[in-house]
Amino acid sequence: MNPIRPALLALALLLMSGCGALTAVSEASAPRDAYTLSPVVAASAPAAGRGHLVVELPSSAGALANDRILIKPVAFQAQYLPDAQWSEPAPALVQTLLVTSFQNLGGFRLVGRTGAGLMPDYTLMTELQEFHAQPAGPDAKPLDIHVSAMMTLIRESDRRIIGSHRFATTALVQTDQSADIVQGFDSALQTLLREAVVWTGAQAR
């Protein structure tokens, strides 16, 4: 047997392995488009409010605690969009949108986040439970966007829980394009934010 042939085969395999590694590194370092979402905007002037509200940073599972856009091809599998990401980690993004939505719709004199130096009358704690896209049926598309959160409102004067409620919304996306998926997230989250603001205001009365 010609000893050169095994050597050439080994070299070819090594080069192929190297190309695969370089491709993986290239894909990992490729820039991703960053997306944000929109808060709820009041149709008229914000309602006058009283009391101070602090919105804590939502807690979340590890798959959500980053700036990647989560896709679940099947129930127990977590993947991320390769060409898109959130402008900040998902829990921080939701916190920002909650604060801005409360400010836009009124109901409280002041609204801020933890660490802003605000002495709160109420604190809103949130567990971000779902913030992902998944196939709506057996095919890869359309996609269902799932957004859900458990919210708990605490009265600071006696540290009493005055309300706790789970919010869950969905939106249907017909394509697997990143911009369309983000629009679906925006639609679902808009519904959740509005419901959360109304509920929180009612609990604090």
From TrEMBL:
Residues 1-21 form the signal peptide. The keyword Transmembrane does not apply. Keywords: Signal. It holds the Pfam family ABC_trans_aux. SUPFAM superfamilies: XCC0632-like. Residues 35-195 form the ABC-type transport auxiliary lipoprotein component domain. This is ABC-type uncharacterized transport system auxiliary component-like protein. It comes from Frigidibacter mobilis.
